[in-house]
Design brief:
Shape: globular
CATH topology: Growth Hormone, Chain: A
CATH architecture: Up-down Bundle
Helix content: over 70%
Largest sheet: none
Mean pLDDT: 84
Low-confidence stretches: 1-11
CATH superfamily: MFS general substrate transporter like domains
Strand content: under 5%
Oligomer: single chain
Number of strands: 0
Length: about 450
């Protein structure tokens, strides 16, 4: 049965928290740090295709670069989850600032595959470090409203993607280069670094509550936690792979592929902003079930529709994935609280690791699909570098037009499987609740 009782009463916990700790300012600084994380996703999604052209990179290489952030993230978030109780959240966030600054500057001065690879890795490590510190910070600041506040915190992930993609769209229209677009991320980076340097932090909820390290690691062996880790693989891939690659996959299907990402993430911002009544009405597990059904419908539309129907698909898909990440973390924090910061961060690390593996695999798979749609014996590099307007360039564009939706249709299998899994989770939680009431 899930251990869904808090360690102490909420009043006692909040009384213990030092009066000098400014909850709202810490929360705002956390949102700024996550904004940098999301800008890195939104701006990279917008400039990825142009970087491929500038540095003569194929889809497999672009997939490897993009995936680097996703496996740098789990390394940082898992390591951070292990040490956050020991060194404190403030020191982790100082490290995040340093990695963000280095990664952004290296991206600005990139000159090819390896500089992009290393800069993206540094940003991925920074992003993971932010999550490793800020997720337990939010649950420590708001122990009586974890899932809702995690949704409010994580709305800045799609929010930053909206801002980033709109900036890319605007900057491209007025002719500003990629370096300026990436450099925009330095502004919130310096802001969150300054704010965190001035604020005092609480201890993590697990440490404050007196749960031992041994108890915390023992709690990770709960079968329900293993189940949620596996589900996190699927929810993260469904949300983040599609969002990160939507411009590449659908660029030849619509002239406004990057706006599909903007619409999707805009819906996610609104959904997370109004998470409180939704979570309270349907429960976290109920929200996850509804979300995965909508995500499946949205992916189906993105993979099969054309024209304006693509934008409707983006709206439905955004409604589906908007609650995935924060509600998965909130479910574990509420129902398996003794897993502490390690539990939350293992969830995040597992999700990003799954996305990185899937993204690298799909980059090669996408190139293979494109090759199958080109004339027999065709060389992919020759077609990708063909002169604009030539027959080879047209054939290459047609091949990508056909291949992109096929990748989306393969990914559709994941939310379909998740629907079955979350039906089972709802039945299990209902049974567990009835059992607890009869004791």
């Amino acid at each position: 049965m899930p251990a869904n009782q808090p360690y102490k009463s909420h009043k006692n916990y909040l009384t213990i928290m030092q009066a000098s700790i400014q909850r709202n300012k810490l929360f705002i600084a956390s949102c700024l740090a996550l904004l940098v994380t999301s800008l890195s996703f939104g701006i990279r999604a917008g400039v990825l295709n142009q970087q491929g052209i500038d540095f003569h990179l194929n889809a497999s290489q672009l997939g490897t670069i993009a995936a680097t952030a996703f496996w740098g993230f789990p390394l940082a978030v898992i390591f951070g989850g292990i040490v956050v109780d020991i060194i404190g959240m403030k020191k982790l966030l100082v490290m995040a600032f340093i990695f963000h600054l280095a990664g952004i500057l290296l991206t600005i001065f990139a000159n090819g595959f390896w500089s992009l690879f290393i800069s993206t890795l540094l940003i991925g490590i920074a992003n993971g470090t932010v999550e490793a510190a800020c997720n337990p910070l939010v649950t420590s600041l708001f122990p009586d409203n974890k899932t809702t506040k995690l949704n409010h915190f994580h709305l800045w992930f799609p929010g930053g993607i909206v801002i980033g993609t709109l900036l890319v769209f605007l900057f491209n229209k007025i002719g500003l280069n990629i370096q300026i677009q990436v450099g925009v991320m330095l502004i919130p980076t310096f802001l969150y670094g300054y704010l965190f340097s001035k604020l005092e932090f609480p201890k993590t909820e697990r440490v404050e509550s007196g749960v031992s390290t041994k108890e915390m690691y023992a709690s990770l062996l709960n079968p329900l936690f293993f189940f949620m880790i596996i589900c996190m693989f699927g929810t993260a891939i469904t949300e983040l792979f599609t969002g990160q690659w939507i411009d590449v996959l659908l660029k030849n299907v619509t002239d406004n592929a990057i706006l599909l990402l903007t619409i999707e993430t805009g819906v996610m911002v609104l959904g997370r902003a109004f998470a409180e009544p939704v979570v309270h009405k349907f429960s976290p597990q109920g929200v996850l079930l509804i979300s995965t059904v909508l995500a499946a419908i949205g992916l189906y539309m993105l993979g099969h529709a054309t024209g304006n129907l693509l934008f409707i698909g983006a709206v439905v898909f955004g409604m589906g994935v908007c609650y995935f990440w924060p509600t998965m973390l909130g479910f574990v924090s509420e129902n398996l609280p003794r897993t502490g910061a390690v539990g939350i961060n293992l969830m995040g690390g597992a999700g990003m690791f799954a996305v990185s593996v899937y993204m690298m695999f799909m980059g090669g798979f996408y190139d293979g699909l494109v090759m199958k749609k080109l004339p027999a014996g065709a060389n992919l590099a020759d077609y990708s570098n063909a002169t604009a307007g030539s027959e080879m360039a047209k054939a290459f564009a047609d091949a990508k037009t056909a291949a992109g939706p096929e990748i989306i249709n393969v990914t559709l299998i994941i939310p379909i499987v998740l629907t079955v899994a979350f039906i089972g989770l709802n039945l299990y939680m209902r049974k567990a609740k009835k059992a607890s009431l009869t004791i």
